[in-house]
Predict the structure.
Amino acid sequence: MKRTRWIVMITMLVGLALLISGSVVKAAVTPFGRNRWPRARVTYVIRGSAYDRRVFQTAIAAWNATGKFRFVAGSNANHQVTLMTSRAMTGLYYRLAGITFTTSPKAGYFSRARVLLLTRNLTKYHYSYWDQVHVAEHELGHVMGLNHSRAPLSVMRADNRYNGISHGDQTAVKLRYQLPVGER
């Protein structure tokens, strides 16, 4: 009788492990929008304290390590993306941890982007350093053209602060820059 229970328990655990690993392998691709940059590379500047710079640089290093997109340091006079912080907490910024604004004057192509990490909310809601890095990764995902995801482990979950870049996120960036502008 005890042996049968152990066999049933082991069988259930193996089945659960296979189910979980199958879900991870077949994770949904993160949704992406119709707009993108002309190529999978942009220049950026970071404005803020040394701490804020470190948060953004860690997030940039994580995305660059995927090999799907490249963020390259630009100059104050010549850059496409501005990464900065704001102390705003009201109106549009109510309870947000970060926000991204993009400009697309040429049909389907981004020309500029601005990312704000909202420091008062990050402090108010006790975001750790790594939580802030994940928020920065999330906002950089928007810079690349990714939309919000419902996948539990995606960095692009609207309420994400705990997850880094997933396989589904990387696949979405790769697809976004393989497909013509306007297609998804």
In short: The CA atoms of residues 134 and 161 lie 6 Å apart. Helices lie at 2-25, 50-66, 119-124, 129-144, 167-178. The chain has five helices and five strands. Residues 2-25 form the longest helix (24 residues).
